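Why does residue order matter? Because the sequence determines the fold. Keep that principle in mind as you read this record.
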Amino acid sequence: PRVAAFQRGGSGCIGGDAELRRSWQPPQSALVGLLFVRAAAALGSWALAIVWESGHAEVWGFTAARGWQLLRALELCQGARARVVSACTQGASLVWCEERPSLGAPSGTSKGAFRFCVCSRTLEVGEQSVHLGAVTIVLHNSPEYQLLASPQHVFLVPSASAFTTVSKFLLIWHAEEARLTVTAPSAGFVLSKVLHSSSESDFRKLLLGFVGLLSTLAPLDIHTSALSNRGGLLLVSTQGTVNVVEPDGTQRHIFDLEGGPLAQGDVVQLKTFGDVLACVSAGVLYLIDQNSGRLIEKKILNMKTVHFLESPGEEDSIQLLTPAGIYSFSFSGTEDGSRPEPCLVEMVFEEACRYYQRRSLSSSKLTVEKLKKGGTFQAPVALAAILQHSLHQKEKPGRGLQDTYAKLLNTMNQELQSYLSLELLKTCVVGAPETEVESYCEELVEQEISRVLHSDIDKDNLTYLNSVFTSFPKAAWKATRGCLQLQQNGDGHLVARATPEVWKKVVGGPLQDEVGLNGVVPLFELVCTSLLRFKPKWLPSFVELTQECVSVAWAYSSKEGPEGRVPLYKRALGVLARKSKRSEGDDELELELLLCSKRPKAVLQAVRLLIQLKRWQRVVEVAEKFSKVSPLLNKEIFTTLLAEFAQHRELDPYLDRLWPLCPAELTASDILTVILQHLPVSQEDPVPFSNEGGQLTVGLLKPLLQRVVQRPSVQDEMYGDALQSPTFPPPTPRREH
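Structure:
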């Protein structure tokens, strides 16, 4: 509709055209912008707003019957000396930046002072008229800004005449939220503030919120700026670097133009078409993938003055306006040999470069181009050919593949199908409604964790797993439970059906001191953290189950196995210690983790923890269970409990269960020595018969001493056979000469 409106020739449009042309005649001031304003459906959903430097603006509508028709003339500036320096439309609103000189300032004063104001006004365009809304001050006492509007945001870019101090950051105005975001390309997001009142719209007060950061920020280096079709701001630096600033204030590097630094008079044209960024600089057309920053194609033009035209609905071609005419360039119909390779194929060669470079003894740098043309390394070439064949199978079914590669394709066909299904699932996640996103994310996380568990757990994969567990904790727990096949059997015990190789990945991999201090934790700790969050009662059983499963995969003395490193129960205890809030059940978890390890030191630590908690019933139960494990552990446990028995009377109700645990090698003298060493020190003189019931008496100790004295000694058992011999003394051996 816009193109049809500007075509001259219909008899019904001549009068309207003439009136529109008269608006351009002198003595009009310089033109600031031709802007399209959203209008009623009867006008073709748009209207034309013309803004001049003096602040005068006109809104024109077009109909096929009457042609161009002036709907409203208005004055944007209130003062006679005010002037508009930049304007844009954001939805149905007109946004402009105007200069407001102070009353006492002469007309030739420098523009360096903070005397600019950014304003907004709604224009409700009807079929015959325009209804004006109130003027809203977005920012006042500000430097000069150039305004660029995306569908939801307005970018404020400092002009070249602004102070060096304030030309270090960009502003992003979110009209619907009345929020202003400050971002610096050298530092990223700085702050975001909602402007509730006009006093908060003062630029100088806004500056005080981050004045300490100003000295650390580098000045802006902007040669050209333009808007992308995704709502971001494209920036080209004087060095030829192309970056994009997103509406949330984050920045991403896209591409570096060739040809060295850009001079002030050099023209750079930017335009986005779908996922492709088109850039014209010094007579060269660059086609760049916005997502990966990869150069798709480069064309040398025979003219330097080129403008991009709007081409709605045609994202696979570019229309160029030149002095010689309008040209269309299609980048979807290029020959198959020059077609850009998929990102996955490009990643194959990049990964191969890193792989071969690490193993090369040569000092020369290996590049992707050398790898493709050298012919020395056939593995990445074969894999790239297979991937291209598989990815373009739908587009070109008849495309053949070498016999050698066909055999390899049959071998890795299952992995390729998994990859394609994963890419399809990612596409579903992007386009799914909010109600279905969670289920898609769970499936996606499950596939990703399963894929990583069946590959080498290096630092990169471990960092990736950490990000997955952090971003999707619940989905990661479900995926881990499914990959290990964790479940409770009928007796309530935790069982798993994962292979020994998977258990190796869970327990092995880089440890904490190997991955650094950047917040990345090993996989075993990630699983323990998930258990602690979603199934804390399973944590001790999981540690015990892991110990049993990895004993099949590793020898007990293997340095690579879990027993050659930090014990698993200590790693689980470390996860418990890092918990932000301590709860009542954490002591019980710590106790169970110590006991499930079945290590002597851990069992003794558990006994001491139970004593500290004064849980005497459980103390005796643990002593009865683990005294049967080894004589040495039996002696340590009994000695510890005997020392407690000497100090207080809490264990008196359990003496009939405690005395049978006395080791065989302990004598009455050894028992009395332990008792005397741990008797509590009294401040008063001891008396033979105390009324207090807290003292140790011989009567309490008598059953134990009788048990020890009546028990046959070790020497008696040693010589028992000889003493019971039928003939005593034994016969003298026969002498020999």
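The chain has a mean pLDDT of 79.
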